[in-house]
Amino acid sequence: MTAVLPKPGDLPRGLTFRLVAGGLDRSSVRCRVDPSATPSSLPRLKIAVLAPISWRTPPVHYGPWELFASLLTEGLVASGHDVTLFATADSETSAELSSVVGTGWSEDPDIDPKVAECTHIASVFERADEFDVIHNSFDFLPLTYSRLVDTPVVTTVHGFSSERIVAVYERYNDRSAYVAISDSNRHPRLDYHATIHHGVDTDAFALHPSPGDHLLFFGRIHPDKGAAEAIEVARRAGRSLVIAGIVQDQGYFESAIEPHLDGESVQFVGSVSATDRSSVLGGAHALLHLIGFDEPFGFSVAEALACGTPVIANDRGSMRELIDDGTTGFVVTGTDAAVGAVERVATLDRGHIRSVAIDRFRIDRMVDAYVEVYRQVRAAGS
Questions:
Q1: Residues 351, 224: one domain?
Q2: Which tens digits make up the pLDDT trace of 97-150?
Q3: Contact call for residues 43 and 106 (beta carbons, < 8 A)
Q4: Using CA atoms, how far apart are residues 297 and 11, in angstroms rounded to an integer?
Q5: Based on the structure, what is the number of domains in the chain?
Q6: Is 170 in the same domain as 191?
Q7: Handedness of CA 220, 221, 226, 230 (dihedral sign)
Q8: Residue 123 belongs to what domain range?
Q9: Is residue 2 in some structural domain?
């Protein structure tokens, strides 16, 4: 069940995207489209987008899978498709919204995650006959419903929380078209229909008029993400460090991060609102992304590049797919290499970095590629 996608440049153009209500506020995503650029010869599709319900869609601060579902949904609506977004009731969308739970279970401790997720997924598949395709952005559990319906299912594989869940993907390998978010994240035991990198709203990010000399860590405070390593690199490079993100591992924060916080050489600013993301990412000398795991994608990397901010990343996972080593940032191995890259950042052209990011991560490229997958799986099943 493998097909070759046309190059994004060969697909219809004409979509542009923006965020309103504060310029960068992801809580109010809207898109605009030139209707004359949408090919009238192709029928519009009825698409169900199944978002996670850990957070609202789009997320107020953290929630990468929900962010993806929102950007894709708004892009599909803008390109003329009939979309129903299955998400929390407090979500905001220009599509039809269908909900069985009021808020995300990460935001309401009274919600039982398993109960909410089971009823949420069932609500999509109980309406399967209404749609041309179901887009599963919810991980592996919805796959267990896929043989119960005739509607094609496209699944974006965001990553593998454990090797144990791969067995579910294998069981339904012939029932859902799997889309990888990076080539590095393709599992060798699975078949994939395509690799489609996430899009970001590049219009919501801009070159900073006067970026500072400080370094930035932007992500979950968790051992996998490399906040402690960023502190060490900044210290050795003689630069201050700003740490931004939610604390996901409190013990790690208290033992490895908090003792270094002095408000000057190392600052912790917590979770950054959508409105401030461009200024925080764009204002740094470089983003340090010294991950200790094979990251499937990395929204903060793409967003930093969209600001023209170079990224220094460990050579793990998708980083070589997102970063052009020596041009838009540096892909390194080890602390010494990361420290050396800090000073080399000044040689990079921030305007060129942003230009490359716009070309590579525009939302319309992602949307066009997914629509092509939808059409291919429908044709294969007819």
A1: yes
A2: 999 999 999 989 999 999 999 999 999 999 999 999 999 999 999 999 999 999
A3: no
A4: 23
A5: 2
A6: yes
A7: positive
A8: 8-199+362-381
A9: no
